[in-house]
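[stage:ingest] chain + small molecule (zinc ion)
[stage:ingest] validated
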Amino acid sequence: MQQLSVPVATMGERVLGIDVGGTKIASGLVDPAGRTEQLHRVRVEGRGEQALAQVVAVARGYLERHPVAAVGVAVPGGVDPVSRTVVAAPNLGWTGLDLAGLLRAELGCAVTVENDGNAAAWAEHRFGAGAGSATTVLVTVGTGLGCGLVLGGRLHTGDRGLGGELGHLLLVPDGRACVCGSRGCWEQYASGSALAAEARDRGWSAAPFTAEDVLDAAAADPVAAEVVDRVASRLAHGLTVLGACFDAGRILLGGGLGTDPRFLGRVRAGLERIAPPSAVRTPVVVEAAALGVAAGVIGAADLAAAGFDRNVDTVRADGVPCHISSSRKQS
Ligand SMILES: [Zn+2]
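[stage:predict] done
[stage:export] tokens:
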């Protein structure tokens, strides 16, 4: 009855973290110090029911071999703060999905579900580049732009679970159309996709290329350098907004593009240009996030260990870690 007052992590057990992305599912076992073991990544094979079945299979694969205290799942979409259902994860075709409930029934153990940007920010706050600071603002710049906020040492989810969705900060009035239905969202100007789109607009059309190709070329090609500077400046513009909102000592940049030192250098130059030192405005200091692609796995697991989810009262009262015995393998 009182199991909520006893954090699962006090069992000293490892927790299974699963980070379900739009294209890949990362997973691993996480101990109470945030260390990972058995990290794996697999490609998402489908959407809807198919993606759900794949998440179940990944979890079962671990639980059949390793006892864990709980399961934490990060998803690319909003999670309702009260019902804990996945409000919408468009990349996976999930809407109003009670993922935690389904996994609990399937696996027989405590399951916590959280937005992936929030989970990654929580991981950096607890074990990464945000450790020791009460305010962690993580901006993940990969193909898209994702964010997560830890404010006053607590994960900020907002009233509807969309509290950290800063990729949809409307920065350019009447700008580019965004998947959210609005125009001019930050993500449309400051992401790997934006970098590739800008390069295409400037005549890069010969062969398929990635944001990294443009970054590679920027050292010698003035057009590529200009494109990277434009995207870095757009990122810097949004970062100054976050600086004013949250007064974070530093803002962490994650993701393949965000942690690339070449890009980071241009973002810093952009910040110096558009936001010179001022006595009345918080200085924006950016730093690379520390946990890389494992951040979502670690954060999801640690939130599950901390009993972040109100539905954690399904933790087994006897404190026995969940483990799928051979008799349960084919339920
Ligand atoms: Zn948007």
